[in-house]
Amino acid sequence: MVNNRIALLITIFIGFLCFFLPARANNLNLANGAIAGNMVTFEIGWENAWNLTENSGNHDAVWIFVKGQTTTGSWTHIDVEQNSTLHYTSSPLTVETVADGKGLFLLLQAQGYTNVEAAQVSVKTTVNLEEFRQIKIFGIEMVHIPQGPFYLGDGASVSSLANASGNPILVESEQEIDLTKIIIHNPNSEFSPAELPQLLPSGFPKGAESFYVMKYEVSQLQYVDFLNTLTYTQQKSRTSLLPSSPKGTFAMVNPYQPDSLYRNGIVIMEPGVESSKPARYAMDYNKNQQYNDNNDGLHRASNFMNWGDLSAYLDWAALRPITELEFEKLSRGKNATPIAGEFAWGTATVSNANNPTNDGTIFESVSDIPQSESGLANHGTFIATEGWGLRGVLRTGFAANENTNRIQAGATYYGVMEISGNVWEQTIMVAGGGENFEKIFGDGVLSKNGDANVQTWCNPSTASGVLLKGGGWQSTISSVGSWRDLAISDRFYSHLKPASRRNSIGGRGGR
Amino acid sequence: MKKIYISILFFMLFGAAVSAQAHYAGGSGGGYASTAIGNSTFVLVGDSISTKVFDVTVFPNPLTSNDIFKAKFTGLKHSEKISIVVSDMIGSRLLVEQVDANDEIIINLPTERLSKGIYLITFQHNNHKITRRFNYSK
């Protein structure tokens, strides 16, 4: 009997530890890489991995891709074998390959959720890695959005899509949609919304089929690593200031307002030389010349990204943009009845994230407590005493910790973070030429001038057919049916083409 | 009784999963990381960049069963603790041991368990790891 009691106490204690001890590692870690012939091995760990598919839920995964630096100094994308049996991973992970071999997904094999700690991974590539000067492995946490019907529009938001009666539309398949039966509900009275074409072709991703989306917005460290694989000419296209600018120059901000960082810390660490040597970039938000230190805001969302920047990043990472239909599906969830003016977390009220804690660190969060049924989001305010709020971006995933629920984390139905607020998301619109977009993935290779060069993607220079969704750190919230940038069905800015770099625009991709 | 305890533990670990669509948790850092292999000035450890604090070479390489396998360190003080892990290319561990750093140490490989091929040897000092590969032939 005594033994039984001891066993019971031990059981409860172990369970308590599993629930309440704070996580130690970073959200995602790759380490200890090595190569031999065509094989690359490394360790991977990430917090809060989940696989709830047998309970009608979804799962997360990490998108892995490999780049190699040739002996001439240029970087190239390295394909991996498409046969999953040629790769290896230790417990608790399994490998999911993709048809184009541009990378692979790692995900939990068993049901449940756990922290993955230093799992061993071996990936077989299609080339001899020993011929390269350097190999880099990249990992991006993704969320799987399952197949299933969903409602488009909420019957209230500005310029939202609706049926002829002004109500939400049930999207049940990827079949073409007759847009003459769809209206722009509550059209923007200040700027004329982009006119709908006659037809939305079957090739346009509608969100009825399954897809992956990045769990978080592109971070500043993510963009730095991208820049460091480009040529001088490509870097010139993907930054605001010349790569030859002096060491310490903030590279993405408005060149006419160099001190207005809006919490962006991407700097030139080593100036480039036109036509011969690319610059090296790093994070130095606190300007102490200690690059990528623990106070530099490495994981803050990348702002000052125009469409050319986001589409180039997604092409380079072998991902693709998401469409405005997919944006609503991943936010609202399958079959969920829309709520007028709802935000990513499924209610129509919001708590403002305005007061940073552990600023700039990997623990960056806010002291603001979300009110009942009001998700936490980084957005703006007109209230005079509060000014414009935070005036910049927060860490991707700032609101979520190991014990948060959907409201507290400001998460979507499927667990995608910061869909409402922080930075505006750049999605493909059903109008303005965006309707011709098809599910074609980036191939990891940009044009010589650093642009995405994937068929059917919106033009990187004009940004025609691109729609800003979800609002940003400066977005204010008005009543339902009025100015309400963070609402998931809002299309207030359908007239605007994000060809310029703005301090509140970033984005994410899918596959 | 044992079954009840296992049930309690299972519920505490996975109970919330029964009704949840997704897992709405997050942690520190972000959902992105990279790691580099090769002749870089910087070594990416997880998602923060740090300079190398020590270096190591292993020799001879290639290695045969008649050779004495050695490692040579720089940047370490004598008697600092180094952990060593030898694994094959699919991650199976063949040797795990802790040694005191010297300028040069002998690594006692379990040659009876090695077949011809490529292996990885990882040296860890505090939070810093370096991996080298070596070619073994009988």
Task: Using brief descriptors, characterize the structure shown.
heterodimer; A: 511 residues; six-stranded antiparallel beta sheet; four-stranded antiparallel beta sheet; B: 138 residues; mainly beta; Immunoglobulin-like; three-stranded antiparallel beta sheet; globular; disordered N terminus
Description:
The complex is a heterodimer of chains A (511) and B (138). Chain A is an alpha+beta fold. Chain A has six helices and 24 strands. Chain A has three domains: 28-145, no CATH class; 210-218 and 317-511, no CATH class; 220-298, no CATH class. In chain A, strands 3, 4, 6, 7, 9 and 16 form a six-stranded antiparallel beta sheet that branches. A four-stranded antiparallel beta sheet of chain A has the order 1-2-8-5, with no helix packed on it. In chain A, 58% of the residues are buried. Chain B has 138 residues and is mainly β. Chain B has a domain at 53-137: Sandwich (Immunoglobulin-like), CATH 2.60.40.1930. Chain B has one helix spanning 2-14, and strands spanning 32-38, 43-45, 48-50, 55-59, 63-64, 70-74, 81-88, 93-100, 104-106, 117-125, 128-137. A five-stranded mixed beta sheet of chain B has the order 5-11-10-7-8, with no helix packed on it. The radius of gyration of chain B is 21 Å and the shape is globular. The N and C termini of chain B lie far apart (54 Å). Mean pLDDT of chain B is 74; it is low at 1-19 and 39-51. Chains A and B meet through helix 1, strand 1, strand 2, strand 8 and strand 9 of A and helix 1, strand 1, strand 10 and strand 11 of B.
Describe what is shown at a glance.
Chain A is of the alpha+beta class. Chain A is built from six helices and 24 strands. The radius of gyration of chain A is 23 Å and the shape is globular.
| Count of beta strands of chain A | 24
Low-confidence segments of chain A: 10-25
CATH architecture of one domain in chain B: Sandwich
Give me the oligomer status. Answer: heterodimer
What do we call the CATH homologous superfamily of one domain in chain B?
Macroglobulin (MG2) domain
* Element order of chain A: H for helix, E for strand: HEEEEEEEEEEEEEEEEHHEEHHEEEEHEE
Number of helices of chain A: 6
CATH class division of one domain in chain B:
Mainly Beta
Total helical elements of chain B: 1
| Relative strand content of chain B | over 45%
Name the helix and strand elements of chain B from N-terminus to C-terminus, one letter apiece.
HEEEEEEEEEEE
